Amino acid sequence: AGVSVPVFWLALIFILVFAQTLRWLPASGVANVGDGGLADVLRHLLLPVLTLALSTAGQFVRYVRAAMVDVLRMDHVRTARAKGAGEGRVVRAHALRNAMIPVVTVVGLELGTTIAFSVVTESIFAWPGMGKLIIDSINLLDRPVIVAYLVFIVLLFVLINLLVDVLYTVLDPRVRLEQQG
After folding, report:
1. What are the start-end ranges of the H helices in 22-142?
2. Residue 165 burial (CB < 10 Å; 0-12/13-18/19+)?
3. CB neighbours of 22 closer than 8 A, spacing ≥ 6?
4. What's the pLDDT score for residue 68?
5. What is the pLDDT of residues 53-104, one digit of tens each?
6. Which DSSP helix (H) or strand (E) runs through 14?
7. Over the stretch 14-56, which tens digit does the pLDDT of each residue have?
8. Cβ neighbours of 53 (radius 10 Å)
9. Residue 1 half-sphere exposure toward CB, CA atoms < 13 A
10. CA pair distance 136, 84, nearest whole angstrom
11. For 108-137, what is each residue's pLDDT tens digit?
């Protein structure tokens, strides 16, 4: 469901259930810390955050599962089992770290994409964020703001890719940065 349900549909369902029917959370807008305190701000944040998180969680679960299935078939995992290691230890110590290498790549790219294209979620929940800024700039043909937004997104992707490369060295001891003299 997380992979196939569009973000706008998930957001509308959340508003219908949690804001209109149950009246637990506000449907839109941003609260000020001074008005209702931190709890009110978190209540206003909950639906947009859940929408963005659940829309990508299905993909992450699929990637982790596929990577774990591949890694659990590898020789070093079979060897750990043959030496008598428990299944929990095999998964945590031998399989999970190796399975996270391709997942880190996907998570990095998806994080950048989620931030860059959260325009729909911001529009539905009436959040005055960068999504609203870029939509207003496109409508007003404000080219400098559009270019600045695109440059920011490009820099964001570059920084996320750098972080992913650094995480590779942590997850996989075979990947190391060598000093050149």
Report:
1. 33-72, 75-82, 87-89, 96-116, 119-124, 130-140
2. middle
3. none
4. 93
5. 988 888 889 999 999 999 999 998 999 999 998 999 999 888 888 888 888 8
6. helix 7-14
7. 999 999 999 999 998 887 666 778 888 889 899 999 998 988 8
8. 12
9. 5
10. 62
11. 888 888 887 788 888 899 888 888 899 899
Answer yes or no: are the C-beta atoms of 6 and 27 closer than 8 Å: no
Asked if 45 and 58 touch (Cβ cutoff 8 Å), the reply is no
Joined tokens for residue 55: 């829309």
Q: What tokens were used for 73? A: 């078939």
Specify the DSSP element, H or E, that contains 144.
Answer: helix 143-171
* Among the listed residues 159, 160, 158, the one whose alpha carbon sits nearest the alpha carbon of residue 107: 160
Say if residues 115 and 156 touch (Cβ distance below 8 Å): yes
Task: Tell me which residue has tokens 């993909």.
Answer: 59
Token digits of residue 141 = 């043909």
